[in-house]
Design brief:
four-stranded antiparallel beta sheet; 233 residues; 8 helices; 44% helix; 25% strand; alpha+beta; 14 strands
Length: 233
């Protein structure tokens, strides 16, 4: 069996959810399609939850608040990602992370029992979820290795190149990010202070490696990759 490409995965999800939502809701009665505005919490760290959340569109920030009060952005989740309670829902699970919409987000909320039944009946869809969760696991592990072993400048480069690969739209200079991130949010992704990351970003802009305004970041991926010998995404 050939691996499912990203476009094919997106089509698979579209076809599954869009072909007959009414029938889906008859088969899996807990399914609710939700639309939430920017900054809305799908759930917060410490909440008790027994559902799963399947992102239909938009970007969700997945983060953890440490005992010292520092926020760590673990990952940015996009269309097709599934988060929430993956344990038997006889007892709701206390969530260890917070999921928050960065912009407007559409998602499906599904009870654990219905999600399990859906995966049992839809083998191709279940394989997509497995592939996608494995890719997310690899991203988080790479990020942890980078934070533990690399200086801040290299961590910023790695993060920007990964963002370009995940959320970038081709432009004249490289990639324009289709999501708006503040310097604090970039710092949270990198695992460094905002002031240090701000200095690094300003240096990169002065060197022509990126440009940014209040609303947009434009990444010169070739220049960033060349600066440290990275392969382009």
């Amino acid at each position: 069996m050939q691996p499912i490409t990203y476009d094919a995965k997106s089509k698979l999800i579209n076809d599954f959810f869009e072909c007959d939502v009414n029938q889906l809701q008859k088969d899996y009665r807990s399914i609710l399609e939700m639309n939430v505005p920017k900054k809305t919490f799908l759930y917060r760290q410490g909440d008790r939850c027994s559902d799963l959340f399947w992102i239909k569109s938009g970007i969700v920030k997945f983060s953890h608040l440490t005992e010292q009060g520092s926020e760590i952005t673990i990952d940015l989740l996009k269309r097709g990602d599934v988060i929430g309670c993956f344990q038997n829902n006889s007892l709701s699970q206390e969530m260890e992370e917070t999921a928050q919409a960065l912009g407007e987000v559409n998602y499906y909320r599904i009870a654990y029992s219905d999600f399990k039944a859906m995966m049992s009946h839809q083998a191709e869809l279940a394989w997509y979820v497995i592939e996608d969760m494995y890719a997310r696991k690899q991203r988080v592990e790479r990020k942890l290795r980078t934070i533990l072993t690399q200086p801040v400048e290299m961590r910023v480069i790695t993060t920007l190149l990964e963002l370009a690969g995940m959320f970038g739209i081709r432009c004249t200079h490289g990639y324009t990010l289709e999501i708006h991130l503040t310097q604090q949010e970039v710092a949270d992704l990198v695992g460094a202070s905002r002031s240090v990351v701000s200095t690094v970003l300003n240096d990169f802009r002065n060197r022509g490696m990126l440009d940014y305004t209040r609303d947009q970041i434009c990444i010169n991926d070739a220049a960033l990759a060349d600066s440290c010998g990275f392969q382009q995404p």
